[in-house]
Amino acid sequence: MLRRLPYRVQVPLGLSVAVLVTALLVTGVSARISTTNARAQTLATLERAVVLLVAQAKPLLAAEDTWRMFALLRDTAALVPGTLAGHARLAVLDTKGDVFAASDPTRLATAQSLLGQTWHGQPLPPAANSMRPQRLNLSDGAFLLLEPILSEDGQVVGHVFIEVDASVFEPDWYALSTTALIGMALAALLLVPLGWLVGKRMTRPVARLISFIERIGHEPAQTLRGSVPRTADPELGRIAHAVTELVEALEQRAKAEARALSAERLAAVGRMTAAVAHEINNPLMGLLTATQTVRLHGDNTPIRERTVDVLDRGLQQIRTTLAALLPQARIEDRPLEPSDLDDVMALVQAAAQAQSTDLAQSIEIDSALRVPSSPLRQVMLNLLLNAIKAAGPHGRVLAILKADAQRVQISVLNSGKRLLAERFEAVLESESGMNPHGFGLWVCRELANHYRGGFELDTSNSEGTRLVFWLPNRELPANPL
Fold first, then answer.
1. pLDDT tens for residues 162-176?
2. What pTM, to 2 d.p., does this model score?
3. Same-domain status, 280 and 409
């Protein structure tokens, strides 16, 4: 789940989680330390109670004053944790190990024998072997303290017996959990926002680099080169340097492509010029021959009339050739207009009527047209002639001109055999700009590439073939050369 989140979210979230985990660990360690300290304090309190009882029980044992001994035990028991709740008991034993007096007579009855007996599953040493202080941990978790009471000459005159149940040493989980929750809440309120801000600051340079990289390919390399984000981090600096080199490489590639495209256009112009020269040279030779004939036989009326007819046909042929050349040699500066589609439809009407093809058109314009008219007219004429040929007799052809603020699009749909994508690419490769008159799908693609537009086959169309040509709806250089 965390890996699916963006990097700029993972880092702040990770820091926040680390803060919470740290707070939880610190709370756990604090609880452990508090438990250990509480047990040590309880044991220290028991040791002080033993010292107090040993010092004050000695004369009471000698006087066999049971009532005052009971009062001493009751007052001392108030200092031992858990006594008031019945979890701790104090007693003074005589030399035989029997209870002389106890703070809880119901559980430690007077004259009850303890030493040498089994107490809560733990065997206690006999009175004769109880010359040293003993600290015993019973099987049920209770703690037992046995301290001998020595006379001035070192004789054992009794014993101090203190038993504390296991529940006294258990930590106060309610208090600890309350403290832990308060600590975690403070950490969440103070450290989590701080960690989130630090994480956001750490990822901000990465976000800027990502935003810049997303612009590559959508904006000219010349404008991108000077806006590469700068950062003081060495690793991010290496990434920024690599991105800068990439932008420079793209700029050099764009320049190389422009040079190659210019050279290709010059080559196409050369091929077209050779073809036009060929088309003009043939009638021109006939015209020269005709003028020579007029010079020699101008007085002969029939010969002169036949020669004038030859001159007229030759000149008409040259005029037709030049008329076909003009749309390619001169690009008009005016923008495209909706009436241009009407003009092109009128030009192809004769070709459509020759094979009974149904022509239709549609215009959907939602913005001003800011594209040059000459290449668009050439593309429309090209696509319509190809569509009429592909539709066949009694077929249908639909031309649609659409425009909005982003693009101007021309699509031509014919009802003929569906053109597959593989065949479409094969046609483009087979033409490769070798048609000197400029009527071919390759020319449409070249115009689209030059004006930063697109020319493609609509593979989603299931009824016939639909070719789509579009240009960005913005001011562009008029001269494609």
1. 888 877 777 666 766
2. 0.38
3. no
